[in-house]
Amino acid sequence: MNTNRTAMIVAAGLGTRLQPLTNTLPKALVPIAGKPMLERIIIKLKNAGYNKIVINIHHFGDMIIDFIAQNNNFGIEICISDERAELLDTGGGIKHAEQFLHGNTPFLVHNVDVISDVDLNQIYEKHCATPAIATLLVSARRTMRYFLFDEENYLRGWQNKSTDEIKLTDNSKQINIQDVTRNYTEYAFNGVYVISPKIFDYLKNEPNKFSITGALLTIAKTENIYGYIQPNLRWLDIGKIEVLKQAEEEFGDLL
Fold this sequence. Notes:
This protein is of the alpha/beta class. Helices cover 27% and strands 29% of the residues.
């Protein structure tokens, strides 16, 4: 196993869905079965061979810095990408962290508020085996917003079911819901992805604060973005207060 891998944990969000817990804590330190979300993701990444982890911070950022120091960086290299002056959204957060992520090897990005049994080595290796600039963990779970993929699982668009908004990477095609349903497969994005450093060539023209979704759709016009599907993936968004108990009950073997 290559043990010289870098990952970024997206942890800067305000955690409004977790109030009142996040009135006094950053989202990343909200506990699941007695351990903070952040600690669980760090340990999972460390066990998968990631020896450098970048964490972006904003809301109660000092508490995250102190937590990392109190745990002696969990025995690995941990870098802080500081967004305390301004919350930059996920795309802006990745761009802001470029100084820690640039190089010749891909890096993995993991949202702090998701729990799953994804094999972090398999998704990384799959990315390296495809001509993709980014590889997204996706699944057929029900949601309101989907990425659209072709028959080879390359990104071709995005759809919001609640508003019927559709964006295709091929601007020459007339958007028709029936054609979209016929020609593309919709998958939900699950907050874990592997990115090649080449992506920073495209992000440099983005503003400081921007959505990663919009950036990926733009990049997919000229680059391959792959949708990785792990069979029987177990996954849960733990960024909502009503889901915390469910996570402990249904994902106890992963905690």
